Amino acid sequence: MIQALMFDMDGVLVDTEPVHEAARQAVYRAYGIPATDVRHIPVKGRNTVSIFTDVNAVHPFPVPLHTAVREKHDLFVRLLEGPIDPLPGIRDLLERYHGRVPIALVSASAQKTVEAVLRSTELETYFPVRVHAGDVRAFKPDPEGYLLAAERVGRPPAACAVFEDSVIGIRAAKAAGARVVGVHTGPYPEDLGEADLAVQTVAAGLVDIVRFLEA
């Protein structure tokens, strides 16, 4: 049986991409960056620093990059008003394994963003172990975040199962040596064939997920 669970946040626990996109677009408008100029820049599985670094190369921000990043984070938290529902099946899955195995959150998002999402979804108690952008030097597909999470939960990566919705997230988890469940959720569906198990949603694939975790 798997000895620890690790979850990506956006697109796995909750679909906050519309809020992220609204915050990004507001920053672009504030600094006169046409959305059409940066539409080709990939966003799935990437954090704001990575995305805005690519934006800056195409259409430089008139302020320091860290200022634009901070403004986007602040906007996201303000836009994330009131309670939001986790994606289908997530709470059931967490309830099943809460207290049985360590559970960690591994996100490329900033600490402020992670805390806001967990608070809004009322999932804070399930994730005593959290790894966010400020904890690592290299982002997905680098395995640093998952290796750090494995260290913090006290389990070898090979004994951990990771839930991811992006190719770069799956590659990060596999590079760390973990098993991976790919979840086809969020607005940017990808080919998750590199995962050990792929499900359309956690709710629809719950039986297969449990079988995979407890084999």
TrEMBL record:
Pfam families per UniProt: Hydrolase
CDD domains from the UniProt entry: HAD_BPGM-like (cd07505)
InterPro entries for this protein: HAD-like_sf, HAD-like_SPP, HAD-SF_hydro_IA, HAD_sf, PGP-like_dom2
GO MF term list: sugar-phosphatase activity
Superkingdom classification of source: Bacteria
NCBIfam families recorded: HAD-SF-IA-v3 (TIGR01509)
Name listed for the protein in its UniProt record: HAD family phosphatase
Species in which this protein is naturally found: Candidatus Raymondbacteria bacterium RIFOXYD12_FULL_49_13
